Each structure stands twice: as C-alpha cells, then as structure tokens.
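Subject: Sanity check before I submit

Could someone independently write out the structure tokens for this chain? I want to compare against mine line by line before I put it in a report. The sequence has 174 residues.
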Amino acid sequence: MKQINSHGIKLRLVEEIDAEFIVSIRTDFSKSKFISETDVSIEKQREWIRNYKKREKEGEEYYFIAIDENDIKFATYRIYNKKENNIEIGSFVSKPGYDIAINVIKVDIILKAFVFTTLKFDMLNFEVRKENKSVVNYHKKFEPSLLKEDDLNYYFILTKENFFANKIKFERLF
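---
Independent answer below. Compare away.
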C-alpha cells in the first residue's frame, strides 16, 4: 500500500522529503498548542521518518500526508500503538490557513474507514486536547466512549459500529 484515494483526497505514506512540511505545520503556533511538542530540526524529523519507515514495513504504523484535489499537501495523520483489537490514531495536523475545512473532515473519515475496513480493527483510540473545543465537538458526533481524562486531554475509544453509524452525517456534505 502506497496511497489511499477517496473523496478526491490522496493519503500517501510519509517520505523523508516530507520532513520540512511536517516540521512547519507541527511547530506553527496556532497548531502546536494542541499537539505534543515537536523539535524544529528538519534533520531530526528525517531521522524520525527513517526509523518510522521500519515500523511501517512491519505493518506496525502508518503515517500519511493528505493531498487535496489541487495537489496541495495540507495535513498529516498517523496510525500507531497497534494492539490485538485496537489501534491509535493521532498526529492529525492540518496546514495553517488551509481553508477547505471539508477536506480535513474527509481525511479523518477516510483514515478511520481504513482502520476499520482494511486493517480490520474493531476499535480505535485517540486523544484530543481539551482546549481544542471544535475538534472535541467534532469527534463527539461519532459517539466515542471517554476512557479517561487528565488536565490536558480527553482519551477516547471509538467502535467500528459507532463510526459507521455516524459517518453518514458528514458524507452528505461531500
């Protein structure tokens, strides 16, 4: 698998050439306040990608770059922490100033569908910063269960059934 194509969006696997793009969006002030800290070193990002590619080859982890219908890279999304019946998604960051919000929603739906249909997991975990209220509200529309929370984050689990029962709300917008 090199790429997922759906709803006019391409999700292609990250390569070392994406290091600068990843660092630029993950260290932007408007985005970085809602994600884990990222080193500003592009070389360290390249090194991280080289190590990640080993995990990708083993089917343990997948890191995607989202590209829109105009061939513009606009987001990242990752699948990791694989366990027996569930897996975690995260590192979902869109490019600052990217103004086609529906494409960001498409990426989320495409990736979750991939986890449930292609990878055949029944549940997926994710965390959202409490301050990121619009993203928290978006994810709640899929009716995930709240596993726990701490001062910074909500930790959710989403079942395959709840995802497929609720994704139609958004697909009508495509």
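---
OP: Matches mine. For the report I'm noting this point. The mean pLDDT is 92.
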